[in-house]
Amino acid sequence: MSSIVDISLSPTVNSIKPSRSVAIADQALALIQAGVPIIKLSTGEPDFDTPAEIAEAGIKAIREGQTRYTQNPGTLELREAICRKLKGENGITYTSDQILVSNGAKQSIVQATIAVCSPGDENSLDFFRGFSREKALRNGGSVVTVRIHPVSVSCSRNRRVLVPAPFWVSYPEIARLANAKPVILSTRIEDNFLLDPKVLESKLTEKSRLLVICSPCNPTGSVYPKKLLEEIAQIVSRHPRLLVLSDEIYEHIIYAPAVHTSFASLPGMWERTLTINGFSKCFAMTGWRLGYLAGPKHFVAACGKLQSQFTSCASNIAQKAGVAALGLGHAGGEPVATMVKAFKERRDFLARSFGELEGVKISEPQGAFYLFLDVSFYYGTEAEDFGRIEDSESFCRYLLDKAQVAAVPGSAFGDDKGFRISYASSLTSLQAAFESIKKALLLLKRPAQV
Ligand code: PMP
Q1: Distance 400 CA to ligand 1 centre (A)
Q2: pTM of the predicted structure, to 2 decimals
Q3: Do 229 and 316 lie in a common domain?
Q4: Which atom of ligand 1 is nearest to the CA of 290?
Q5: Which protein residue has the closest C-alpha to ligand 1 atom 7?
């Protein structure tokens, strides 16, 4: 018996794009499985194993039967360890009820964005009604007064999320998922892809709800200097409705003299900052799925409510491993320092090598494990058996085809002039990849003018 099935999907799902970096990785994987020796510079995860001390803590947790649900926001043990870390390393004071542990920082970002941006419905109205116009929030020792903006509820349908480009692929899609409008703020390679405060100022309106700052940045490796963050904070402080989502997931992967500054540590910013961090990148724990949000209690509690109906707590085993990770010492101690040293050596090699290539523009990457190279000089050139390079997508297809190197087109990050290389690969494969890219670029010719 056949029946008719409605296969339509929700407008929200239809409005978001699948992750483009995952798509390229899949294409590269298919070629690798077919026996093509592709060098994968497309992945966003460290090539190192999780440090043994952390892995052992996970194994011990399983052996000791720590295999049940934990409290929805995470174990008190882990949240207290996170509070100590944020105080000691970042100079920001939180209590354990201002921390929400999730299955990765991506979940933390999704929940935070939905909690502050989604169109108002009865529940969110109730949530906002639960607060008086003026509310005292506790920031460590000091008490700050926060105004609940009168248009917070009525304008919720028009909330905007401001995202500097090049951006991590998921921010705009997460904004759409929350039924908010992503507003892209362009940056320039000459400014090291750092947000120009004047650009920010020109794009801010009454509808602006969330400014995303990612430092160290995926995909550019840029690190925001404290002085620039202070200038941004000055502007932000003039907009009562504007919150800041500070994604600090790469914080320990940073190269001197660059220094990491937590946005919430700047004067007046604690009460409007949603600090995101996680274990995936700095502790090589992508598969453990562990991240967290720190922020004022009413935002964190709202995210916790979402999480309680969505996934419940993060993995109990991963949380035990997270405690061990934070126990490794300042900035992850020796195991993290060893990984950062290797990343720095690779960064130095690539920055030096690409810096000497004709037609390739490079910024000064100071953190994370990515380079974002401007190759727009090659657009309009052609190669035999390939055709014309039109944009970042055809450029990356060309690299896959001729250099057998997988990288991610800049269009995925909102900047079509370039492409992203992840140097979470051994120095030997990076050297081989560079030589192949160099050779492939030499084959590109401008078509003769007719
Ligand atoms: N933020 C940024 C900037 C990232 O690059 C990633 C992972 N690619 C995440 C957040 C999410 O990390 P996870 O969910 O693995 O903790």
Answers
A1: 25
A2: 0.91
A3: yes
A4: 16
A5: 44
- Tell which atom from ligand 1 comes closest to the C-alpha of 168: 3
Residues 156 and 112: their CA atoms lie apart, in Å, by 14
Answer yes or no: is 186 within a domain.
yes
Residue 347 lies in a domain: yes
Residue 291 Cβ inside 6 Å of ligand 1? The answer reads: yes
Please say which residue of 331, 358, 386 terminates a domain. 331
Helix axes 333-355, 52-63, angle to 10 degrees: 140
CATH number of the domain residue 35 falls in: 3.90.1150.10
Q: How do 382-383 and 387-388 pair as beta strands?
A: antiparallel
Q: List the domain range (segments joined by +) for residue 416.
A: 11-49+334-449
Q: Is 126 helix (H, G, I), strand (E, B) or coil?
A: helix
Domain match, 132 and 280 both: yes
Q: Per-residue pLDDT for the chain (450 aa), expressed as one digit of tens each? A: 778 999 899 988 888 887 665 667 778 888 889 999 999 999 889 999 999 999 999 999 999 999 999 999 999 999 999 999 999 999 999 999 999 999 999 999 999 999 999 664 334 444 444 444 455 554 444 555 555 544 444 444 569 999 999 999 999 999 999 999 999 999 999 999 999 999 999 999 999 999 999 999 999 999 999 999 999 999 999 999 999 999 999 999 999 999 999 999 999 999 999 999 999 999 999 999 999 999 999 999 999 999 999 999 999 999 999 999 999 999 999 999 999 999 999 999 999 999 999 999 999 999 999 999 999 999 999 999 999 999 999 999 999 999 999 999 999 999 999 999 999 999 999 999 999 999 999 999 998 876
Residue 260's CATH number: 3.40.640.10
Instruction: Give yes or no for residue 252 CB within 6 A of ligand 1.
Output: no
* Residue where one domain finishes, among candidates 293, 311, 331: 331
Count the alpha carbons within 13 Å of 10 in the hemisphere toward its beta carbon. 7
CB–CB of 165/413 below 8 Å? yes
Asked if the peptide bond before residue 166 counts as cis, ω within 30 degrees of 0, the response is yes
Q: Which of 125, 210, 124 is nearest to 159 (CA)?
A: 210
Claim to verify: residue 215 and residue 78 sit in the same structural domain? yes
Instruction: Supply the angle between the helices 316-326 and 52-63 in degrees, to the nearest 10.
Output: 140
Q: Per the domain annotation, does 3 fall within a domain?
A: no
Q: Is residue 55 a part of any domain in this protein?
A: no
What is the CA(106)–ligand 1 centre distance, in A? Answer: 6
Domain total of the chain: 2
ipTM of the complex: 0.99
